[in-house]
Design a protein that fits this description.
With about 575 residues, the chain is α+β, with helices and mostly antiparallel strands. Helix content is about 60%, strand content about 10%. The protein has 17 helices and eleven strands. The strands form three sheets. Strands 3, 4, 5, 6, 7, 8 and 9 form a seven-stranded mixed beta sheet that branches. Strands 1-2 form a two-stranded antiparallel ribbon. A two-stranded antiparallel ribbon has the order 10-11. Helix 9 runs parallel beside helix 11. The longest helix has about 40 residues. It starts with 8 loop residues before the first helix and ends in an 11-residue tail after the last helix.
């Protein structure tokens, strides 16, 4: 029987990274839950076995339930009935399968009914689900909104809301509005305190809200009258049971058809404050968005995997000119590049998720006791690393996802343009990944300060200290040359001292950063497990070298006088 986890051994390789020992140590707090919860692990090996077993369960459900329902869900889509949303029938079956298996609230503490999972195995589950149905992954993966509620809500809110999510209730994050998409500081949904009822009331419209008829919503709203910027925004919890929010319409989208994207009307809806006023955008949404961006990176890798699998299967089966097309150089070159991007992008994703795991666990411990000086330094280090890698993981994997689905359709030829093959669905689903939760252009904006202040060069320098196998040393020399070109390019832009030049060249520096970093990571993986990654390392490093050389030449030949060519 097919299993989306077991069938892709690269996932188990990433799960068994050496960093997991520290992550489990922090997450399990000396395995203190083992005497209270019969499903809590006894030690590190038991924890890793638990992760592995749960991933197998998710792999089984995705391959044999979610995957089987994907086409019908794509065709049926959700229904707008009155002021509410009804999921496609296949989506309902998917939810029932995941909830009955206990796959909700995965990262939440056991005292609230969660599994106390680290982010890394949870992110793997998100990848696996997305590989079969990206639309359903948007519904299921939004459970990680509860991370923000857990981080910033009070204990009473924890007790009332988190167990509901762990039991299978759904969540959404209601941020964007008709006049506030990427520019969230322009949000105008009004929050007014009702002294008589001792609650907040929300009024206004939200648009492009994924899973907008969810049970529990995190809502960004303007609580400070007379303000127009981010300092007047707060975060609120809206409970669907209270009423007051109606679904005006479900958007008619190119892809992710199973996921209802809604326009919502708030009419004096009762809500409660999450955290403190004025910090909604400045602090809480930033935390929420970083988690969402990691989730879209996982979704992108999942779609990339699906596209590669479809392209490979078709190439093995299709004959032209008397032979299988996989034997033709143009086709196997495309497949090799697709696999290389997939493996390198996945390496970046899980390097980032492990950084997130360390800082989140330490941040949680800090709510229980004072951290030691060493732990404070560790928290600071891994927070910075996670913040730096998140925009790279989201932006690059979403771009690779689009490229891989494009190439997979090309391998299918005319058949890929027909609706008879699932690759057309992956292609349509892929397109949104480089747009929502921050466009690729916004990921460049998020990353540029780490480029210019040398953070990425420091990360690259640290990773370059690791040894590679003898066979891979020629590739390592190529990477060393790439690092030099990258550093020269960054310095060139710094010396220009021109913000507009930096803005024009930022995308090229961003891609050079990511391609160099992923080259190092794929070499490390190929050293540790050559049977899985040797070919991808050979292909990816050469591909990255080509790109870095070209971008470096472009950057170093660019002069400010050329800006006129780009202006409208």
């Amino acid at each position: 029987m097919a299993n989306s986890y077991i069938d892709h051994p690269e996932l188990r390789f990433e799960l068994n990274n050496p960093m997991m020992e520290r992550i489990v140590e922090l997450k399990e707090r000396n395995f203190r839950d083992k005497d209270e919860f019969d499903y809590a692990p006894q030690d590190y090996a038991d924890t890793m076995d638990s992760y592995d077993r749960v991933l197998e369960v998710v792999g089984d459900i995705t391959a044999n339930v979610i995957g089987e329902n994907a086409e019908s869900v794509d065709l049926e889509g959700p229904h707008h009935e009155g002021d509410r949303v009804r999921y496609a029938s296949g989506t309902v079956k998917n939810m029932e399968a995941m909830v009955s298996a206990g796959m909700n609230g995965m990262t939440m503490p056991r005292r609230y009914g969660g599994l106390n999972f680290a982010m890394t195995p949870y992110t793997m589950c998100a990848e696996i689900v997305a590989a079969k149905d990206a639309g359903f992954s948007n519904i299921w993966s939004l459970q990680d909104c509860v991370e923000t509620l857990y981080e910033f809500g009070n204990e009473d809110q924890h007790k009332r809301f988190i167990p509901r999510v762990c039991a299978g209730e759904t969540m959404s994050m209601d941020l964007t509005e008709p006049d506030a998409g990427s520019d969230l500081q322009s949000v105008m949904l009004k929050a007014t305190y009702d002294e008589k009822e001792d609650c907040w009331r929300l009024n206004g419209v939200k648009r492009f809200i994924t899973n907008g008829d969810a049970d529990i919503h995190l809502v960004l709203a303007r609580s400070e009258e007379g303000t127009t910027d981010g300092r007047g925004l707060s975060m609120f919890i809206y409970d669907k049971r209270q009423g007051g929010v109606n679904v005006r319409r479900i958007e008619n989208k190119l892809g992710i058809h199973g996921s209802p994207t809604c326009e919502l009307v708030y009419k004096n809806a009762k809500a409660e404050l999450c955290g403190s006023t004025r910090l909604g955008l400045i602090k809480y949404v930033m935390a929420l968005m970083n988690g969402a961006r990691l989730g879209i990176a996982a979704q992108s890798v999942g779609i990339s995997q699906a596209a590669y699998d479809e392209g490979l299967a078709y190439a093995k089966d299709r004959e032209q000119f008397g032979k299988k097309i996989i034997e033709m150089a143009p086709v196997y070159d495309m497949l090799a590049r697709m696999k290389a991007k997939l493996d390198a992008g996945r390496a970046l994703l899980y390097q980032c998720s492990r950084y997130v795991d360390v800082y989140k666990a330490l941040d949680d411990i800090a709510r229980e006791r004072s951290l030691t000086p060493e732990e404070k330094q560790e928290l600071k280090k891994f927070t910075r690393l996670a913040d730096a890698l998140t925009p790279l993981a989201k932006g690059m994997n979403s771009e690779y996802c689009n490229q891989n689905t494009y190439d997979a359709i090309q391998i299918h030829g005319g058949s890929g343009f027909m609706l008879d093959y699932p690759i057309q669905r992956y292609y349509r689903d892929a397109r949104i990944t480089s747009i929502y939760e921050g466009t690729t252009q916004l990921q460049v904006v998020a990353a540029i300060r780490y480029i210019m202040n040398g953070t990425y060069l420091g990360i690259i320098g640290d990773l370059m200290q690791e040894e590679v196998s003898e066979e891979l040393r020629p590739l390592r020399q190529k990477v060393e040359a790439m690092v030099r070109l990258y550093e020269e390019s960054v310095n060139y832009v710094k010396e220009a001292q021109n913000q507009e030049v930096q803005d024009i060249l930022g995308r090229r520096l961003y891609e050079m950063t990511a391609e160099t970093l992923m080259s190092i990571l794929i070499l490390r993986n190929a050293t540790r497990c050559p049977e899985l990654f040797h070919k991808s390392a050979q292909v990816y490093v050469r591909m990255a070298e080509e790109n870095v050389i070209g971008k470096s030449a472009y950057v170093k030949q660019f002069v400010a006088d050329e800006l006129d060519y780009f202006r409208a």
